[in-house]
Amino acid sequence: APPAPPVAAAGTANTNAAAPAAASPSAPSPISIKVQRRTGAGTTARPDADDSQVARTVADIESAMSTGDLPAARRALTQLDAQLPGESLTLLRMQAWVSHADNDAANAERLYRRIVERVPDDINAGVNIALLDARRGDLDDARQRLTRLSGRYPRSQQITRALAELDGPSP
Question: In this structure, are residues 64 and 73 in contact, taking their beta carbons and an 8 Å threshold?
């Protein structure tokens, strides 16, 4: 399954990108972006990037990812890295998404785990960690993570599809 686009949990980051919880493998879902910049807790937004610039860069990454243009996604990700602090959830989500799509499973998992350290019930990061666990053969860990998430988000089609994928026939 392709990695799910990032979704932000409300009120958890200096900068958040919101996207639909489920990604369709046949066609990209429209994405709505809401950028919030907060300071405090030792974190400050970079003064040279305004919210609209960050939103445009995130949209560039999403557009490149929707067409499978990884080189363009990487270029836009480099721009986003210059616009946001390293601990930004938006930056982490975009980095994980691009790494996952680029088959860099180790880096993608490391980034997804950084996200769930801060947002334990993050659907996309949790589902993608579970899928990476399953790919590695850790089916029990994958199922446990998805079951916990399904208790928190019982109507999530993304979680339901991931559980079905675990229970489906092996290739």
Answer: yes
Q: In angstroms, rounded to a whole number, what is the distance separating the alpha carbons of residues 122 and 125?
A: 6
Which residues, in sequence order, are bridge partners of residue 43?
Answer: 40
Q: What was the pLDDT predicted at 167?
A: 84
Please, what is the end-to-end C-alpha distance for the chain in angstroms?
Answer: 13
Own/partner contacts of 159-166, CB < 8 Å, gap of 24 or more, are 159/123, 159/127, 161/1, 161/22, 162/1, 162/127, 162/130, 162/131, 165/1, 165/131, 165/134, 166/130, 166/134, 166/139, 166/142
CB atoms within 10 A of CB 85: 16
Average pLDDT of adjacent 10-residue blocks, the chain of 171 residues? 54 36 44 50 53 95 96 97 95 96 96 96 95 94 95 94 84 53
Which pLDDT value is given to residue 2?
A: 62
Residue with tokens 């990061």, as numbered in its chain: 125
